[in-house]
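pls read this stuff:
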Amino acid sequence: MNEIIITRKEKHREGYKRFYIGRPSPLQNDNPIASYAGEGCGRMAAIREYKKDLRQKMINQDDAVMQEIYNMQLELLVGPIQLDCHCAPALCHGEVIKEYLETGKL
């Protein structure tokens, strides 16, 4: 499998097909970190919720989500991809997307 990297939107690696996953995009995280501030690590809680939300959207066959995942899978057949998000290099929901693309599991 070709490489998947997660980077800030402003950075581009030569030779990588870019996919924006921040807001607004089909794969955006609708769970703001600030909403989970009282739970210790807001970032981790937001990512856990994103994983649940993405799983549900895939079960429901959300058209926009499924199309974006399909496009990423196609690009991975021919070369590496870059997931662009404002959070990177901090831990981000892009790790959930990357995990799914690499393993097929959520």
Observations:
- Helices lie at 42-59, 63-78, 94-103.
